[in-house]
Amino acid sequence: MITIFSEDHRLQDGKAELIDGKLVPCFEMPKRAEIVRARVAEVGLGDIEGPLHFGREPLLRVHKPEFVSFLETAWDEWKREHGDYDALPLNWLAPGMRRKLPERIDGKMGYFSFDAGTPITAGTWRAITASANVALTGQARVAKGERAVFALCRPPGHHAGSDFYGGYCFFNNAAIAAQAFRDSGAKKVAVLDVDYHHGNGTQEIFYSRGDVFFASLHGHPAQEYPYFLGYEDETGEGAGEGCNANYPLRWGTGWDDYETALDDAIAKTRRFKPDALVISLGVDTFRQDPISKFKLDSPDYLQIGRKIAALKLPTLFVMEGGYAVEEIGINAVNVLTGFEEA
Fold it and tell me: Residue 322, Cβ neighbours under 10 Å: how many?
């Protein structure tokens, strides 16, 4: 299996995020991607290649123009107003407030973001466009006949919506790739999200569409970030009714219950009859992940890969979360080797 990887991921290197009432070093760090790449090489998964460059148009197929423009200029605006340190928002919209874009950078950040855990830095724009290009390069290889490709994206993407960022995510790499499959001829595409956290951005982007099926297994929003989306009764609307499937799972979920949910998600994906499959590959379901509360172990990820392979679809794996840094390489690559061996 080919892996697509960009060295530019290192340019997103935030100093701190706000979590549990404290400013702490970012869990989403460059070391994550480096450990996964090293594991890919260690097991001999396949060649590691750099991304091609696709420009702005694929981004604009998923994200609103004013949001893309904001991300491109946010650092320069922040630096002019505040200085050379990471940008975090101060306040957000609440019910009853007007969604009207402010002029100052502080207001713009509150308008476009939904948390204070996703710093914008001097290198953010280059890192996030590179990450999107990694996904698009992988998509192009699959569309041209590869059985599967691993897009080792960083920063991740599944929390980013059409016009908002958060959860360490800026551009939604999986959604951009899914749209690229549609634009290259696939009539229907499925996105299966196995990250611990709900793919709220992916759901928002495709919720009213009947050509993209989205399924997500995740920590129950009654207990877990991002809290305000991901319930079972969210099944799509309009043309997208029936094309969204959420599997909220309680803290402490182990393999047996996770497998049951995964089998159902895969069965629904099969009934949708997609032409291509995108996997939002998060491995923060691991029992030792520092910010998650599921109980999967490393051998379970081999099983996940085998079950995905049973769909027999052209498949793009897009890296999302996973923060037990020493194990992230083993667990992510176990999914890929399980897929390859099936």
Answer: 27
Strands 17-19 and 22-24 turn out to be antiparallel
Interval 109-168: pLDDT, tens: 999 999 999 999 999 999 999 999 999 999 999 999 999 999 999 999 999 999 999 999
Handedness of CA 244, 318, 128, 117 (dihedral sign): positive
Please, which pLDDT band fits residue 324 given cuts at 50, 70 and 90? Answer: confident
**Cα atoms in the Cβ-side hemisphere of radius 13 Å centred on 8:** 20
How buried is residue 47: exposed, middle or buried, by Cβ count under 10 Å (0-12/13-18/19+)? exposed
Q: What is the maximum alpha-carbon separation in the chain?
A: 55
Catalytic residue among 9, 63, 158, 159: 159
Task: Using the predicted structure, report yes or no on whether residue 31 has a pLDDT greater than 90.
Answer: yes
CATH topology for 2-63+122-341? Answer: Arginase; Chain A (3.40.800)
Extents of the domains making up the chain: 2-63+122-341
Q: How many helices (H) and strands (E) does the chain have?
A: 10, 10
Q: Can you point out the beta strands (E) in 54-188?
A: 148-151
Q: Check pLDDT > 90 for residue 36.
A: yes
Q: Is 158 among the residues known to form the active site?
A: no
